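Subject: for your reference before the review

Hello V.,

The reviewers asked for a structural picture of the protein, and I figured it would be easier to keep everything in one thread rather than splitting it across files. Below is the amino acid sequence we used in the manuscript, unchanged from the supplementary table.
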Amino acid sequence: MRHQLFEWNECSSITSPASASTDKISISNQLEIFFEILHAEKTPRINRYEVTSHEGVPGGAFQSMSGGSTGHPKIVERSCASWVLSFDANNDFYNLRGTRFAIFGSITHSLALYAALEGLHLGCEVHHLQGLMPVTQLQYLESKNIQVLYITPTQLRHMLSAKYNNYHLESLQYVFIGGSSIENQTLKKLYEIAPNAELKQFYGSSETSFITVSDRCAPIGSVGKAYPNVEIVLGEWPNQPVSIGGTGRVWVRSPYLFSRYVDEDNFNSNKVAGWVSPGELGKLDVNQNLFILGRIDRMFKIKDQSILPEEIENFLLTKEDIIVVALVRKSDVLRGNRAIAYIGTSKSVNIEELREACIALSPVLDGSFRIVELSTDKFPFLPSGKPDIYQLEQWDT
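And here is what came back from the structure prediction:
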């Protein structure tokens, strides 16, 4: 069933302007090996610095890593067909065939891998901008007339931290933003230099692929409505939905779901009878726009009161010069837990003023709450460009 495999279209190319270091294989070589393994009827696995070959799966499959922001990443296996379906859907909606793509980050992250494979499959130029300074990224996007950009909110904030007033990305048609929520302030900055771009914030995970995608009518804070052929249910279990407007665990059923976790045979509470949960809480408005409140495995209690770290993170990200935020818990004998917010900044900010504002927003934080400021080059990131929550939790601060 060769037609279900990804194809490297003869019109496609991939360019990486930042030279690869001597100990890492380039993205183009990684993808060449990926396609060789796949078309030899084996299953390619994208590892941190290499692509390895594993037992073939009927119909064609590949393996990648989950995000791992709160712990060790898992190996996720999915069929090629599950992504080819969305390649075709996106091309139908956005006419992507033959355009010029730009991607950020390592292809060990599912967003970068997805974008690279979609571009190559649809006969596009793919430009991989990992390793470039923010101002160089902007120069490159402008000079190469990039039309489609796949990027995470953190990567976008980092790029826009450059002095961008002299850059005009007139050619940008679509900006697909995935990985976490994005604040209005950052979107306004992007519109200033890319006035012709349509911003498509989408929600999904390594296991689910697309769940929702936004449009110009999506309310502020929403990740949009269900992607075509996606069903969404909120509840403790998919057969126990909450009432309209209620908050519940997000469950998804669609043709884009992953197949299995490799080397995990035990029951997994995130996968039940054809439904998959990305492990997050959400709510739907009356128009079926989805709002994500936070990850269930990141919730914790301070003095028996629950706190969602994302609420504080999203608030801090609205402040000028803050590029990335991660709020983590630390053990505390008296309170059970206390909270520390690590912030990556482009220049120094007023920590005490920010701390007081956070406590006013969420009084459960109390006087034990701290904010630790880091330069972005000292901030620990995953290959996806997301903060490494697990590493920050281990820091002795």
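For the response letter, the relevant points are probably these. Residues 299-394 form a domain with the GMP Synthetase; Chain A, domain 3 fold (CATH 3.30.300.30). The first strand starts at residue 13 and ends at 15.

Happy to draft the paragraph if you're swamped.

O.
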